[in-house]
Amino acid sequence: MLTWFMLNFQDASSAVMEQLIFFHDFAMIVIIFIWALVGVNLLFICYFQFTYRFFNQEQTVETIWTVVPIFILLAIALPSLRVLYFLDDSFDSYLTMKVMGHQWYWSYEYPYFKNLSFDSYMIPTKDLMTGEFRLLETDNSLVIPVSMQVRMIVSAGDVIHAWAVPSLGLKVDAVPGRLNQINFMVNRCGIFYGQCSEICGSNHSFMPIKLEVVPMSYFISWLGNLEL
Ligand SMILES: [Cu+2]
User: Fold this and answer.
1) Which of 80, 128, 143, 194 could pair with 209 in a Cys bridge, judged by C-beta atoms 3.0 to 4.6 Å apart?
2) Which residues pair with 151 in a beta bridge?
3) Which cellular compartments is it found in (predicted)?
4) CA 115 to centroid of ligand 1, rounded, Å
């Protein structure tokens, strides 16, 4: 893959991530505008002599360059707050799952379905099949239905971990003795990867998150095929 594309966000697969990318792009436009304005001013100051012997004060200009940044900051702060509230909004969820971080694997629980639970370990590089991603594949991956509001309860068994899936805009700390929750809905089928995002020990890099998002009918047959 080209390095340039690796600098971008992954394609958004949930409404939350779409909002985050919109906000990022908007904030970047404002930042580039300010950067250009200041840059041009610096050049002018370097090359021209803006001096005036009788210059003492200029109230109008000072008022303008105080008030304009206030509005610019407001224009950034308000959409930012909107996204912040959107991230934490607990919509009615139809499926609740629990994820526990361990040194160094994740374990998932589906309390709605016969207390289904399993551990998810990384597949070592030597065991990978062709086309699989190094350090990202797991032996058991999380399976969830598409277009369904899911609530994920996140905690940890030993040290602090963080459960994160960038293309879904998910990142939540897994803290021992504390239940954090995150709500999300994936709006397309596919396989999504993430990694532990809290330095949690020597194998921190080797506890990936793999999410298989499938249609509801597949999800039901997957549950039916499990030997519980
Ligand atoms: Cu971890």
Assistant:
1) 194
2) 96, 183
3) Mitochondrion inner membrane
4) 24
For the domain made up of 12-88, give the CATH fold: Helix Hairpins (1.10.287)
Strand 95-102 versus strand 180-184 pairing type? unpaired
Please report, rounded to a whole number, the percentage of residues in the chain having pLDDT higher than 70: 98
* 214 phi-psi bin (left φ>0, alpha ψ -120 to 50, beta other): beta
- 95-225 maps to CATH 2.60.40.420: yes
Q: What angle do CA 212, 198, 20 make, to 5 degrees?
A: 60
Q: How far is residue 49's CA from residue 84's CA, in Å, rounded to a whole number?
A: 46
Ligand 1 centroid–CA 210 distance in Å is 14
Q: How remote is the CA of residue 163 from the centroid of ligand 1, in Å?
A: 8
For residue 162, report the distance from its CA to the centre of ligand 1, in Å. Answer: 6
Q: What span, in angstroms and rounded, lies between the C-alpha atoms of 74 and 54? A: 36
Residue with tokens 């109230």: 59
User: What pLDDT sits at residue 198?
Assistant: 94
List helix spans (H) across 51-196: 59-88
The DSSP code for 146 is T
Residue 50 CA to ligand 1 centre (angstroms): 57
- 4 preceded by cis ω (within 30°)? no
Q: CA gyration radius for the chain?
A: 24
**How many other CB atoms are found less than 10 A from the CB of residue 26?**
14
* Tokens read off for 13: 């697969």
Q: pLDDT by residue (tens digit) across 123-162?
A: 999 999 998 999 999 999 999 999 999 999 999 999 999 9
Ligand 1 centre from 205 Cα, in Å?
8
